[in-house]
Design goal:
- With about 260 residues, the protein is an alpha/beta fold.
- The chain has a single domain (about 5-245), classed as NAD(P)-binding Rossmann-like Domain (Rossmann fold, 3-Layer(aba) Sandwich).
- The protein has helices at about 20-30, 45-55, 70-85, 105-135, 155-175, 195-200, 205-210, 220-230, and strands at about 10, 35-40, 60-65, 90, 140-145, 180-190, 245.
- The protein has a 7-stranded parallel beta sheet, with helices on both faces.
- α1 (about 20-30) links the parallel β1 and β2 (about 35-40).
- α1 runs parallel beside α2, α1 packs across α8 and α3 packs parallel to α4 (about 105-135).
- The protein is globular and about 55 Å long.
C-alpha cells in the first residue's frame, strides 16, 4: 500500500472497462477518492463504485466524452465539488481501429486523434490549471502505448496519437517541474483487456503476440494499475517526464532474443 495516496483525489478517464477500471479499483484499494469517467450510456459503473467503497475508498461516476472541452472541465469540477481537490489526473481514454493507411478517412483520423491526443491534452490542461490555482504538487499520468515508438501499419492514426502523447508528456513535465507538478506516461504492451479479447481468445493469434513479448505472456490490467499507483505516489517523487514501458520487453527487439540476428 502507498499510504500517501489515502484520501487523495484521482480522476481517471475511460475507467468503465479495461485498464481504466483496473486503475480505478487499485486506487480504491489505496483508499483514494476516485472520479470514474465513462463514455457510453450502456456502461454501468455502479458495481465498480461499490467495489471501491468496499475497499475503503470513495468513488463517483461522471459521464463524458474526453474529446469535448466542456466534458473534461466537468470532470475536474466534479472532483472539486465531491472531494475538494484534484491530486492525480490519469488520461487513459483511448480508441483504435484498423484501416490500411491509403484507405484511412479523415473522419477516422480525426476521431482517434480527438480522443487519444486531444482528450489527453484537455485532461492535462485542465488538471494543470487546477493544480496551479490551488498550489497542488500534483501528478499527471498519460496512458500511451508501445506504439509511441513502434510503428504500426494499418494503425497510422493510433500510432501518431501515441507519438504525440509522448512529446506532450515530456514538454509538460519540463514546463511545470518548477511547480512540482510531475507528468509521466505509461506505455502498455499487449494487455488482456476487452479490446483485445477476441484476438487473445484465438490460440494462434495469442501465440503470435506472445512471441513478440520477451517475458512470454500477455500482461494483466492489474500490472498497469500497479505502475500507475507507483507513479502517483511519493515513492516516485524524483520521476518526471518519462515513459514507463510496461510491455514485457516488447520494445527491446524480441526478434534478437537468444542471440539471433
Amino acid at each position: 500500500m502507498y499510504t500517501d495516496l489515502q484520501g487523495q483525489t484521482v480522476v481517471i478517464t475511460g475507467a468503465a472497462t479495461g485498464l481504466g477500471q483496473a486503475m480505478a479499483l487499485r486506487f480504491g484499494q489505496e483508499q483514494a477518492h476516485v472520479v470514474i469517467n465513462y463514455y457510453g450510456d450502456d456502461q454501468d459503473v455502479e458495481p465498480l463504485i461499490k467495489e471501491i467503497e468496499a475497499c475503503g475508498g470513495q468513488a463517483i461516476g461522471v459521464q463524458g466524452d474526453v474529446s469535448k472541452e466542456a466534458d473534461v472541465k466537468k470532470l475536474v469540477q466534479a472532483a472539486h465539488e465531491h472531494f475538494g481537490s484534484l491530486d492525480v489526473m490519469i488520461n487513459n481514454a483511448g480508441i483504435e481501429n484498423e484501416v490500411p493507411s491509403e484507405d484511412l478517412s479523415l473522419a477516422d483520423w480525426k476521431r482517434v486523434i480527438d480522443v487519444n491526443l486531444t482528450g489527453a491534452f484537455l485532461g492535462c490542461r485542465e488538471a494543470v490549471d487546477y493544480m496551479l490555482e490551488h498550489e497542488i504538487k500534483g501528478r499527471i499520468i498519460n496512458i500511451s502505448s508501445v506504439h509511441e515508438i513502434i510503428p504500426w501499419p494499418h494503425f497510422l492514426h493510433y500510432a501518431a496519437s501515441k507519438g504525440g502523447v509522448k512529446m506532450m508528456t515530456e514538454t509538460l513535465a519540463l514546463e511545470f517541474a518548477p511547480k512540482r507538478i510531475r507528468v509521466n506516461s505509461i506505455a502498455p504492451g499487449a494487455i488482456n483487456t476487452p479490446i483485445n479479447a477476441v484476438k487473445f481468445a484465438d490460440s494462434k493469434l495469442r501465440a503470435g503476440v506472445e512471441a513478440l513479448v520477451p517475458l512470454g505472456y500477455i500482461g494483466k490490467p492489474e500490472e498497469i494499475a500497479a505502475a500507475a499507483v507507483w507513479l502517483a505516489s511519493s515513492e516516485s517523487s524524483y520521476v518526471t517526464g518519462i515513459t514507463l514501458f510496461a510491455d514485457g520487453g516488447m520494445t527491446k527487439y524480441p526478434s534478437f532474443q537468444g542471440g539471433r540476428g
